[in-house]
Amino acid sequence: MGTSMATNLLEFLSKLSPDDPFERQLHVHNRTQSKTDKLVSQGAVLAPSVADLASACTIVFSMLLNDAAVTSTVEAFLSADPKPGTVFVDCSTVYPNLSEDLSHKAAEKGVLYLTSPIFGRPDAVLAHRGLLVSAGDPAARERVRPLLEAIGQGILDCGDDPRAGSAMKLVGNFFISSWIELAAEGMTLGEKNGVARETVLDFITRLFPGFITTGYAKALVADKFTPTPEDPGFNLEGGMKDVGHMQRLGRESGAPLPVADIVQEHMQQVKNMGGAGLDWSSLSLAVRKEAGLPLSHLQ
């Protein structure tokens, strides 16, 4: 995901005029340095460490796997004495309380902390079809707005509290994971009663068009759950982390999420079957197994 976002930013920066307020150079860092090779070959500058980003940049984006990675990266960045007024934009999916905590730590260092998670698979983001959230200091949000617009198709403004941006990402992922569960159950019901999955896909495409709804429905019909370099998808364990955050947020805010409980149970079943490396849409395999239907994976 981060590579897709950085590619779009690199394209945007390359077209800037001398009067634009942004630096024309994109600095990139990854804990696995080889993952930056393609961006560097396209003109980005390698930052060997997070500290190098702090010294070179006044706007920084991060896209990381989990809460622990975000915490360690932000703390390393803040300890490197970034310039006062620097804007740090975290695009990761994390628990909202962490965003709140890190925003306070950033403020102590004179850094403005925004949350801007993105909806969309890596291929959709690369095609500028991602939908971004934006939450945090209003002046900082306005400052980075052209960069967010360069990355995706639009921005959901969630106000001045960075915590709300992370909460919105969990709300959105709740809809997406629930949709996968709904499509899997509907296709299974149809197949058990003589209706082909392709027919259900046609129904979905006609009545519920959209790149997420139809994209996942097509994956279920094709049993396309194995990540590839071209389409890494979203792995099952990452999905379980996100749904776990949703469940916790629901409990702590008094908003029960019974559908999320079902989704998590089905993902756990697939993981127990040996499917931890599959896309999270593979939860449909658990639905099919419960119905006694044949499985394309994890026999």
TrEMBL record:
Keyword Oxidoreductase listed: yes
Key words, A-Z: NAD, Oxidoreductase
Signal peptide coordinates: none
Entry annotation: catalytic residues: K169
Gene3D superfamilies: N-(1-d-carboxylethyl)-l-norvaline Dehydrogenase, domain 2, NAD(P)-binding Rossmann-like Domain
Domain 6-phosphogluconate dehydrogenase NADP-binding: start-end pairs: 23-156
Keyword Membrane on entry: no
Family label: Belongs to the HIBADH-related family. NP60 subfamily.
Protein name: 3-hydroxyisobutyrate dehydrogenase family protein
UniProt organism field: Coccomyxa subellipsoidea (strain C-169)
Highest classification ranks of the organism: Eukaryota, Viridiplantae, Chlorophyta, core chlorophytes, Trebouxiophyceae
